Amino acid sequence: ILPECSQTKSFMDGRNTFSQCPNLKYLDLNGAIFKHRDFRNAFGNNPQLETIDFTGVKLVAIQYLNGAFSGNPKLKNIIVGEGEYVDLTDVYDTSNPTEPQYLFQNCSSLTDLSMFKMYANNNRWNSTFYGCSSLTKLPIFIDLESGAETKHLTSVNYGFEGTFNGCSGLTDLSEYTFEMINPYNNGMNSCFYGCKSLIHMGRIICKGSFQGLVSGCKELTTIDELQLYRPIETVKEDGTISQNIIIYSTNAFLGCSKLTNITFTGETQCGYQNNTQWQVPPFSRESILSLFNILSPARIIAGMVTTIVINRNSYKLLSDADIAIATDKGWTIIQSAN
Fold it and tell me: How many CB atoms neighbour CB 16 within 10 A?
């Protein structure tokens, strides 16, 4: 228990403040007001920690939240006063969103985070809730500009890699939108990997790779919208095309045996662009066929073109019957001569 103090408990650098305390089970912050920008691993990596009492606590001028509560596998109780929240929205600079990557990583006993308030607009959401296998209630998200509650989460620069990986207690994210503002290579790789109880996804706007996006979501039936992105292209002086973003989709829907309803929007391409040809990334013919089959009878919106290009020199040719699985749903399959 922190000692009572009439003055603010102020730290210029709060990194690891209560981290790696192997015998700590109960942390009472006793109404402290923490004024420092850096909360990286501030309450993390305590193998026995079960309870943190945030009653009357204020966190001021936050900039870094990386791993602030991560690595607390027994943490299950976050106590706040009546009408209070653990408010993470008092940020140092609103023009530079916070980075809550790894924020609750591997807090496998936490079920309810609804007493937290945090901004929905951040630079990166990488592994924010990774390994929170008991989690059923997400934080309250606040729009940075309007100050209103929202379920539209955005990543400005680095995406949602592994954000909800292993969150096997989540069942319904149909009201949420997850949007990448700027393109980034790793994009949404494994974002919802292993969410084995998840049934319904809302809207996903991905501007990067989406390998293992919902892999292992064995109860998933519906993705309301998956908006994919064609990489930025630059035509060089010699006429060849280069790009900054390589998109991979390996195992995006692997193990989603109940997925029957998905709407693709945007310029949907399964693979990456090499000069002027679209090619699938290095996965097997069987993986491609499983993608075709898993999505059946997926609905594809009118006027949308989905193209997959197979490189003949690298992959076993698909048979006419194989191709028909996809073309019957309006997909275009091209087998490249290169």
Answer: 16
Pairwise CA distance, residues 320 & 313, whole Å: 18
pTM of the model: 0.79
Q: How many helices (H) and strands (E) does the chain have?
A: 2, 21
* pLDDT, tens digit (0-9, with 9 covering 90-100), for 165-181: 999 999 999 999 999 98
Question: For the chain, what is the largest distance between any 2 Cα atoms, rounded to a whole number of angstroms?
Answer: 78
Mean pLDDT on 127-148: 96
pLDDT at position 326, please? 65
Rounded CA gap, 327 and 318, in Å?
A: 12
d(CA 136, CA 113): 8
CB 171 within 8 A of CB 197: yes
CA distance 148 to 185: 31
Length of the chain: 338
CB neighbour list of residue 300: distance below 8 Å, 6 or more residues apart: 263, 264, 306, 329, 330, 331
Q: What is the DSSP annotation of 13-34?
A: --TTTT-S-TT--EEE-TT-EE
Residue 289 makes CB contacts below 8 A (sequence gap 6+) with: 318, 322, 325
Q: Which pair of structure tokens corresponds to residue 45? A: 């990596």
Q: In the structure, what pLDDT confidence band is assigned to residue 34 with cuts at 50, 70 and 90?
A: confident
Average pLDDT, the chain: 78
- In the three-class reduction of DSSP (H, G, I as helix; E, B as strand; rest coil), residue 320 is classed as helix
The residue among 228 and 54 whose pLDDT is bigger is: 54
Q: Which residues contact 274 (CB under 8 A, 6 or more apart)?
A: none
Helix (H, G, I), strand (E, B) or coil at 138: coil
DSSP H or E stretch at residue 224 = strand 222-228
Closest CA to 71 of 24, 99, 108, 26: 108
Share of the chain above pLDDT 70, in %: 69
Classify burial at 303, counting beta carbons within 10 Å of its beta carbon; exposed 0-12, middle 13-18, buried 19 or more: exposed
The whole-angstrom separation of Cα 229 and Cα 183 is: 8
